[in-house]
Write a structure and sequence with these properties.
Largest interface: A-B, 35 and 29 residues
Number of strands of chain A: 9
Structural class of chain A: alpha/beta
Radius of gyration of chain B: 10 Å
Distance between the termini of chain B: 7 Å
Strand content of chain A: 5-15%
Strand order of the largest sheet of chain A: 2-3-1-4-5-7
Largest sheet of chain B: 5 strands, antiparallel
Number of helices of chain B: 2
Helix content of chain A: 55-70%
Number of helices of chain A: 29
Order of helices and strands of chain B: EHEEEHE
Oligomer: heterodimer
Largest sheet of chain A: 6 strands, mixed
Shape of chain B: globular
Number of strands of chain B: 5
């Protein structure tokens, strides 16, 4: 089997990644977000007797590299030299895109041009004479529709044929004067035009030629080359593109009149975000309850029956039910929430709205010293901090990236909401107000952190704003589901590796030394007792509270399950009878009613996720409410809001910025959580006179 | 005049890109080039929304100031 390496090159937003997605069927992220492909992405296809390796280069406007993503593309083309270039052109913006085509042709590699989004071009009255284009450049020109995948299949046989026939495009000719000089630089027969130009511009020995160019053209060589390229692109454009002036209004302009309205644009943005979060919470809540039921009411008892019948020791059975089901199982219940949030955010992204948010909100953000583009990751943070931190990759300057990463962990996520709703309902008359205030406190601390960093470590001005707003496009459902599935797969992978390992470790700490009956005598209990004095100023000197904070480092919501284990350790659990078939039937009925509830929730105007249902853990509630005062409960919530008590977040910070940053930030958030918790406790004690 | 002084709805022709910033090369490759027509769709905050051929480009005012138009 022969392999062919193909590079997909084109301007940002021309649909390269969706063409790759149609070809290879891989779960690649495609976006209307300019520059989403900062890394190199690949996909492999088997076709005939060939293995075709497709590399998606970052979207670039020109091969004169400035930013990181442009360097990636440039280095790949010049150093790794693909067998073939697939130059994707957005048909409606042919004139702009042809500049890159000209620059690519200088590299003299076999090339195929793909005219994408022909349907959009036709609507705009643009006709492209692809036969002429093909003859002028001496290469094959194909037409596709990246959204639907129309015409994409024809790419593969053409790739193989061009590769086998070694079809090279016709060599590009610039002006006579420039060509003469470039020919004088030639040392070998096979030097490409790109190499000759590089030599002319950079080689020390070519200074005399640069001088002579300055004399003939009265311009610097760099500028002469650029002008020649633009002239070539413009010439091509004039020969192959015909424009009829259609009076049809552009749909994007009409939508932008509303969504980017100077006055209404921002309220509309808040309205859209409100619905995104309402839908995410309300639609997923019934499914989350169902998964919880399924794991605890069906999967766990079924497996423990099976383990018991295999005759494994009690140790193994408990490790299984407490670490695997209690730890990993609990995390799995968040899958519906993650799925729905990603679906909606992907919809916003691919439809072209998300880049507009950056433009719309820049006027507020830049007063805080932040680039408008940084708002998007911050918003994602309300869904889950982990992908929000990954999303900072799209920011151009490292300063912005670090600032935003330091703000994201203070955006309150659904895991915190779970804990807040437990305590707020138990201790306060107006739980919604308390929860809302906590969200605001998180925002405030994020802003203060940004201001602090800006004044000290990350001084310096704002980067210019340069960005393209893509036209609005309706993404296909298949594309959206592929993206959502990619995220869920990643989440499942983490649940099966990192979270599982940590759950087992904490379970061991709670059950060592061997034979320990009471968690207070376990290793975890000793640690909890040792750190209890630290939390005394927050009104949390009970060892049971401090111990429950240790496993909560994995994920905040675990604080509830570990409190349950610790507080009710002495209580005897009655073993229920378990009938697998009836239980399975019950689960199926449960899933149906969950789907029904989810649909009903869609039509309720007010978010229902805040209304907390009374659960059966009446004993835990009463035990906790006896051992804490409202002031210490408030302190506990504030502490948990601010302290980065989430292994996932710390891990992703480590990966994106580095170990040092992750640990310093962890210490900072721990200190800040403690300090604010202390103030909250004082304030609460003063308010409620306890 | 420079691009920042243009009013929303107006269409102008670019005369010259002044200034030495590297980012202007990118702006140029995005289609904002000598001789090209651009229309200003909106001014929001520190940014301008322009229409260049069939694409929409946002640039900040500080960059717009270094683009001479007519």
């Amino acid at each position: 089997m022969k392999s062919i390496r193909v590079a997909l090159a084109g301007n940002p937003n021309v649909g390269k990644t969706s063409i790759l997605n149609h070809l290879a069927g891989t779960n690649l992220k495609v976006g209307n977000w300019p520059g989403v492909t900062v890394e190199k992405r690949e996909g492999k296809v088997r076709f005939w007797d060939y293995e075709i390796e497709l590399v998606d280069l970052p979207g670039i406007y020109t091969l004169e590299p400035l930013s990181d993503d442009e360097w990636v593309a440039y280095n790949y083309l010049t150093r790794e030299k693909p067998d073939l270039i697939l130059n994707v052109i957005e048909a409606p913006n042919m004139e702009r895109d042809l500049l890159l085509t000209v620059e690519l042709l200088e590299h003299e590699l076999p090339t195929i041009i793909v005219l994408n989004m022909m349907d959009e071009a036709q609507k705009l009255g643009i006709e492209i004479k692809d036969r002429e284009l093909s003859e002028l450049l001496g290469l094959r020109v194909l037409r596709t529709n990246g959204r639907t995948g129309e015409g994409v299949r024809a790419i593969l046989p053409n790739l193989v044929e061009v590769y086998n026939l070694k079809e090279k495009p016709r060599s590009l000719k610039y002006s006579r004067e420039l060509e003469d000089i470039l020919e004088k630089l030639r040392e070998r027969e096979n030097q490409t035009k790109a190499e000759l130009i590089k030599k002319l511009l950079e080689d020390e020995g070519c200074r005399i030629y640069r001088e002579s160019i300055r004399k003939t053209f009265r311009k610097e060589s760099q500028e002469v080359i650029r002008d020649e390229r633009y002239a070539k692109a413009h010439g091509l454009y004039r020969e192959v593109v015909q424009r009829k002036h259609l009076t049809a209004r552009d749909i994007t302009d009409s939508i932008d009149k509303v969504l980017l309205h100077p006055v209404f644009g921002i309220p509309l943005f808040f309205l859209i975000m409100f619905f995104v979060f309402k839908l995410s919470f309300d639609f997923s809540a019934p499914f989350m309850d169902w998964i919880d039921q399924f794991i605890n009411g069906f999967a766990a008892p079924l497996l423990s029956e099976m383990l018991a019948s295999l005759g494994v020791s009690l140790w193994v059975e408990r490790l299984f039910s407490e670490a695997l089901v209690g730890g990993v199982g609990f995390v799995l219940t968040f899958i519906p929430l993650i799925g729905v949030i990603y679906f909606l955010l992907a919809l916003l992204e691919f439809s072209g709205y998300l880049p507009r948010v950056a433009f719309l909100m820049d006027r507020f953000m830049h007063r805080l010293g932040l680039h408008g583009k940084s708002l998007v990751p911050l918003l994602l943070g309300f869904g889950c901090n982990v992908p929000a931190i990954v999303a900072t990759r799209t920011l151009e300057s490292r300063r912005d990236k670090l600032l935003v990463i330091a703000m994201i962990p203070f955006m309150s996520c659904p895991a915190r909401l779970v804990v807040f709703s437990f305590f707020a309902v138990l201790f306060f008359k107006n739980p919604a107000l308390v929860i809302f205030s906590l969200y605001l406190l998180g925002l405030l601390v994020a802003l203060l952190t940004a201001l602090l960093l800006k004044g000290t470590l990350f001084k310096g001005g704002l980067y210019h704003f340069v960005m393209e707003l893509p036209p609005y496009r309706l993404p296909t459902l298949r594309l959206l589901f592929r993206v959502v599935w990619a995220y869920i797969k990643d989440f499942l992978y983490r649940a099966g590796t990192l979270i599982l390992a940590a759950s087992i470790l904490i379970w061991l700490l709670l059950n060592l030394p061997p034979g320990v009956k009471n968690p207070s005598e376990s290793l975890a209990g000793h640690v909890g007792r040792a750190i209890a004095p630290i939390f005394k100023p927050l009104g949390l000197d009970d060892w049971r509270m401090s111990t429950s904070l240790i496993p909560a480092f994995l994920a905040r919501e675990i604080v509830l399950s570990s409190m349950g284990t610790i507080y009710t350790a002495e209580m005897y659990k009655e073993k229920e009878e378990f009938h697998p078939f009836e239980a399975l039937k019950e689960q199926a009925v449960g899933l149906l009613s969950a789907s029904r509830d989810a649909v009903i929730n869609l039509f309720k105007p007010i978010p229902t996720a805040f209304s907390v249902e009374e659960e059966s853990e009446e004993s835990l509630r009463s035990l906790v409410s006896k051992s804490l005062s409202p002031a210490s409960a408030l302190a506990f919530m504030v502490f948990l809001l601010l302290y980065t008590s989430c292994l996932g977040t710390v891990a992703v910070m480590w990966r994106e910025v580095g170990k040092k940053f992750a640990f310093i930030f962890l210490a900072y958030s721990l200190f800040l959580g403690w300090l604010m918790g202390f103030f909250a406790y004082r304030l609460g004690s003063w308010l409620w006179n306890t | 005049m420079n691009l920042e002084e243009v009013k929303p709805g107006q269409e102008v022709t670019i005369l010259e890109l002044m200034g030495k910033e590297d980012v202007l090369k990118k702006v140029e490759a995005m289609g904002l080039r000598r001789g090209r027509k651009v229309s200003l769709l909106q001014k929001v905050g520190r940014n301008l929304l322009l229409k260049v051929d069939n694409s929409r480009v946002v640039i900040s005012r500080d960059l717009a100031r270094s683009i001479e138009v007519q």
